[in-house]
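Format notes (please read before filing issues)

Several people have asked whether sequences and structure tokens are stored in separate files. They are not. Every record keeps both together, in the order shown below: the sequence lines, then the token lines. Line labels are part of the format and must not be stripped during preprocessing.
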Amino acid sequence: MRAHFVALLLAAIAAPAAAQQDFSKAEIKTELLAPGVAVLFGPGGNIGLSYGEDGNVLIDDQYAPLTDKIVAAIAALDPDPVKFVINTHWHGDHTGGNENFGKRGAVILAHDNVRTRMTTAQVMKAFNMTVPPSPKDALPVVTFGDGVTLHINGDTLHVIHLAHAHTDGDALVHWQKADVLHMGDAFMLRDSFPFIDLGSGGSIDGLIAAANRGLALAKPSTRIIPGHGPVATRADLVAYRDMLVDVRAKVAAAIAAKQTLAQLQASKPVARYAMPDGFVKPDQFVETVYTSLSNPPPAPHSH
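Then the structure lines:
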């Protein structure tokens, strides 16, 4: 099934696959977003950074082989060690550095479902892939249900759970004072359709709800960090949400009309968005939305 896509997915999600990649020439690039707030770009998911007198807080930590480069990039802004790591979800391109930072004394925080998935083998049925359990030092030691708040470095960081979006353990992080929002992979700004991990509890309806949650927090001036891609604006997130809503409506109408998946794909319902060569191909995205609407996840439990 889609060998090229499988290869990309293996590299992006499976932490063990990262060990086979050569990161020797990888660079970690830093962009300052506000006083005490930065984003670090590298081969994995975008890293958010809060730094200042109270210590460094990371949002995600990419791959294990990159830890020293990430630490060096942080040290250029603040030489203090990393005090907290917040994971936006369980995938290895966002949690691969957990073990290294955990061993260095960082406290790892994530949604309850992130720890649950990281403590057990995760079978990616669609790709014939099994991700083994993570070592103890990589696991979140503080978990939350609806969310948690950090009062640190002169700001208030609201960490908010996004139910059944990219996965069942997604979280966004909002810097209240700095006016910065990290959406994790609930928002991916690049030339590709979003990847919804149905096997990990993701859904199209949850992804739309996540975008709306981010929009409710964002102002026109808000700097938004996507899970992958350049720093975005509220207008970018609006366009992304509108695309999701449009595609969902087309797929739902096709299901109501008893169309098969093949008939739906033949009608090219996402052609207007012109992203044929991205990480997730048009037909793959349509299939994901079709499957999501045909087999919706259970309603999230309240905490």
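For reference, the curators noted about this record: The CA atoms of residues 23 and 65 lie 7 Å apart. The chain has one domain: 3-248.
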